[in-house]
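Researcher: Please translate sequence to structure tokens.
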Amino acid sequence: MTSDAPTHVFDVDQENFEAEVLQASLKTPILIDFWATWCGPCKTLGPLLEKLATAFNGAFRLAKVDVDKNQQLAAMFGVRSIPTVILVKDGQIVDGFAGALPEGQLREFLSRHVQPAEDAAEEATLAPAETPEQTVERLRHAIAAEPEQPELKLDLALALMQAGQADAAEAELAALPANLATDGRAVRLRSQLDLARALQGAPALGELRQRVQNDATDWAARDLLGVRLLLEGDAAAGLDQFLAILEKARDWNDGQAKKRLLAAFATLDDAELVGKYRRRMASLLF
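Model: Translation complete:
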């Protein structure tokens, strides 16, 4: 972090952690960024987090922890890979993630817990988020500069999927080294790709909605509608379609609704949403 960084971005070590993170989080949420100088994805994520800390104008503060200099802190939080980001609020861990998410997903993550300060809300709303295509371009440049960082290639595969380039995402995923092939984000991406394959040659969203409206028992249309909604960002609405099939036609297409729900759960990082729909699925099955 540079010396002219705003006060809502600051460095943390063992000595100031209690006061600057745990105690300070009683008043303002603290987002902890565990990073290292040698970490390629950290160089991608760090500037985005600092940008959002500026955009939110003090609604949260960003604490930077260099894991090489603060191994005890990293161990205390169970950090196994970097970057890892953890949100502390009221002295408690409330959420977190590992890996370099694109800006849109970072904003979504933050919006679940904090809102921009009142005098910066309009600025934060107007500030354009990085598009999936821009993320892909940025990561390609980063890989060209640091080809020895395989984590960047996983980030690229995820960004390609966000940009709707499923075939390119699958190619990047297949080329990952073995240690990254089992990463949680890679496993999630495989589930997304499986769902995306179901949409090859499928009708557009509007046509699928019309088919379901015309015939509520058109399970094939309802199934594809659920997949489209899920992959296009309306997860709850997509899951509702699968639950509707499960409730009325559990055995349709060899129990496909249950399979879709399980695959969908594997793609989502919203634990609260997944828990809610798992319970609803269980109530229908048992």
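Researcher: Any highlights?
Model: Residues 67 and 75 are 9 Å apart (CA to CA).
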